[in-house]
Design the sequence.
């Protein structure tokens, strides 16, 4: 799940394009409802409380994987804490 599209919602809200904003919110709520219907509440709760926080911190991928060539993985590798 990408969290970047949330910024688009704020952009359209700021531009006062309420039709597009309402469509984005409706789409997000509909996809969430379909996910709960298909997979159940317990799996979605586990995803939101255990998987999503670590992914937002950049811990979703192996920092030592050299095949992951992106700016975020490079910055994560530079600033990883090594005890």
Sequence:
């Amino acid at each position: 799940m990408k969290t970047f599209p949330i910024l688009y919602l704020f952009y359209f809200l700021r531009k006062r394009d309420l039709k597009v904003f309402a469509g984005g919110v409706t789409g997000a709520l509909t996809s969430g409802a379909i996910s709960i219907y298909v997979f159940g509440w317990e799996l979605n709760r586990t995803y939101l409380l255990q998987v999503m926080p670590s992914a937002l911190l950049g811990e979703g991928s192996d920092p030592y994987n050299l095949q992951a060539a992106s700016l975020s993985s490079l910055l994560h590798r530079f600033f990883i804490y090594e005890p």
